[in-house]
Amino acid sequence: MEKTGVPAPDGALPERHGAAPSPGSPRFLVLGLLAITDGRETVVLQPSRPASLLAALLLHPGSVVSSGFLQRVVWGSRPPAGGKSALHTCVLRLRRLFVKYGVTDHAIEAVPGGYRLDADADSLDLLRFRGLLARAQADDDPESALRLARAALTLWKEPLLGNVQSEELHRDQVPRLAEERLLAVERVFDGELRLGRHREMISEARRAVHAHPGHEGLSALLIEALYRSGRRAEALAEYRRIHAHLVGELGVEPGPGLRGLQLAVLRGEPPLSLPEPPPAGTAAPGGMSPSLGRASPATPGVLVLRSLVEAGLLEEGPPGRYRVHDLLRLFVQAAGTALPASRQNDPTDLPPSPPSPPSPLG
Asked: Is the pTM of this model over 0.90?
């Protein structure tokens, strides 16, 4: 259970409640509020100079962090006179806190030019996250890779280092951490696509795109999911949205990957990152028609229906039946054409397609 309590005399940590863990068991948390946990109880650090110093060391685990950088982290652009001595005082306060909370295996080491704090995946959530994501990227089993990527994402909490008052870290380091998280989100969505779960991931992908409206990778994955779900018009609408955002907010055009994806959608071709459609006569994942991007013998009527599906004006239902989008219905009404009387009670369905040789729309 997370404890905040009353700040300790030095203002760095609240008082601990409950029995102290065995030596070496506490872990550092930076993917959220800066904290120490033993797996049963979490102690959240109070905003303070020692907390900023610890965050800077944990964001560079095992590396020498220069005294100059640490002074900027702790005091900003105006470090006190005798900054190195003041920095050493902060380090001593952290060492005392480490002893108090049983952190005995990860002492802060003074080295030429600065300080270093060693950690591993068992003692720092950032390294555990990176390890899980690396395993996900190397795993050839899509299901296993997806589980690993989702496990990595569960380590993240909000707000990211919200209890660390350091302009230096929030300007330069926190955005880099946030980008690492987005790479993991992309890995999850890519895994869902590879497993044919494009329909299931659309709502989650929309939320991610809403939170990061200028992120091309997330928009590309949403476009693929919509396209593979037969929602071509929505896929193109998402491309128009990200294009307008990039041009209007940043003054740049979408990258070649996103532009290539748009062309694939416009032409009805499979995006480069998607697997080849299954052989004729087999069902595509999630009910998507394998006709997208693959031509096969068909009657003119079937070709028209295929074109309407690819244009986003029809949605394919059970074999031989199609649902009409509102836009097409308006066109029909404007032309003075009515649906057959037998279908007036269900104006969203078209009659079954006429018999034709087997085709992908079958």
From this structure: no
CA–CA distance, 351 with 335 (Å, rounded to integer): 19
Q: Which of 125 and 1 is assigned the larger pLDDT?
A: 125
Q: How far apart are CA 222 and CA 227, in angstroms?
A: 8
Question: Which of 260, 188, 253, 255 is closest to 227 using CA atoms?
Answer: 260
Long-range contacts of 290-298 (CB under 8 A, 24+ apart): 290/360, 291/359, 291/360, 291/361, 292/227, 292/228, 292/268, 293/264, 293/267, 293/268, 293/269, 294/270, 294/360, 296/359, 296/360, 297/357, 297/359, 298/356, 298/357, 298/359, 298/360, 298/361
pLDDT in tens, 22-78: 444 678 999 999 999 887 888 999 999 999 999 999 999 999 999 999 999 999 988
DSSP 3-state of 44: strand
